[in-house]
Amino acid sequence: MFMLDPEGAHNMVIKMGSMLSHGPLLSLFSQSVEERPCDVMGLHFKNPLGLAAGLDKNGDAIDYLGALGFGYLELGTVTPKAQLGNEKPRMFRIVEADGIINRMGFNNKGVDYLVSNLIKRKYKGIVGVSIGKNEVTSLNDAHLDYIYCMQKVYAYCDYIAINVSCPNTVGLTALQDLEPLSKLLKVLKEEQQKLELCYKKHVPLVVKMAPDLNTEQIEALCHSCLENNIEGISCTNTTTRRDIIYGLNHASEWGGLSGRPLYALSNDVLKKVNSIIEGKIPLIGIGGISNAIEAREKMSNGAELLQIYSSLIYKGPAVIRDIVNNL
């Protein structure tokens, strides 16, 4: 797979996973892991390790990915309308550091396509959907895109992640500032209450934050989440920092950096958020987890749930079993 360019390899995996998800061979690729049940955000997870958003944006390979042993899957990020994303090449491996830089730009087939795959899935585990805004939508109207996606996916998923921290969509991270974030969360909570009455189902909202915020910004985001009764916070998205990979191949490419280089930075943010939240909101630890010890450290720093992406690329599905069985 590593002989292919990163995005080509990614597309091949999703295409293979899509075929397996709808065929009789799925059991050959399933992976048994030990039970590590936990209850978070009012949801029951068979284990706390999930797939991070970005790998299966359109829900094409839900059943295949679910068979690998994850406790839950986060799909997306999805936008109201389909969009191509940024120009290629837009994904780069930092092989020496087990890292990945991507500037995909919310490329996806639109929320209706994702919903069609959510309806067809046989996977019975927890599924979250990460939602965002289309690139052409102004920041002032961003809430309309989030509401639209929320209305579309609400009946077919278990939680909704509000992605305001991706560095690859121009201006998006400005939504993490206190005033726009509070405005967005307020209207989404109001919409959540309406949808809960409509569908007789409560779907928690999770805010995904960037690792590049300063202490004042972290405090403001946390207090906004508390004031608006947000049910979860993901720590963290990818980083724009390059100091830890300076001089390595592709280190100068712009975009979000994930994988092992993100580990320490995301842990620092997780610790700060945990000290502010004080257990009032469940935290999801994301960023650089590649083994059980790193997973345990995330949990000791306050994470109740975990997510991986880059380590799955570098280590394959066995990393899921190795982490879960040794938590």
What does this structure look like?
Strands 3-4-7-8-9-10-12-13 form an 8-stranded parallel barrel, surrounded by 5 helices. It is globular and about 45 Å long. It has one domain (6-325): TIM Barrel (Alpha-Beta Barrel). The chain is of the alpha/beta class. It is 37% helix and 18% strand. Strand 9, helix 7 and strand 10 form a beta-alpha-beta unit. The longest helix is centred in the middle third of the chain and has 22 residues, at 178-199. The two termini are 29 Å apart. Residues 39-327 form the Dihydroorotate dehydrogenase catalytic domain.
User: Any guess at the CATH architecture?
Assistant: Alpha-Beta Barrel
**What percentage of amino acids are in beta strands?**
15-25%
- CATH fold field value: TIM Barrel
Classification by helices and strands: alpha/beta
So what's the CATH class? Alpha Beta
What is the overall pLDDT average? 97
GO molecular function, one term: dihydroorotate dehydrogenase (quinone) activity
Keywords: Cell membrane, Flavoprotein, FMN, Membrane, Oxidoreductase, Pyrimidine biosynthesis
Pathway: Pyrimidine metabolism; UMP biosynthesis via de novo pathway; orotate from (S)-dihydroorotate (quinone route): step 1/1
Catalytic activity: (S)-dihydroorotate + a quinone = orotate + a quinol
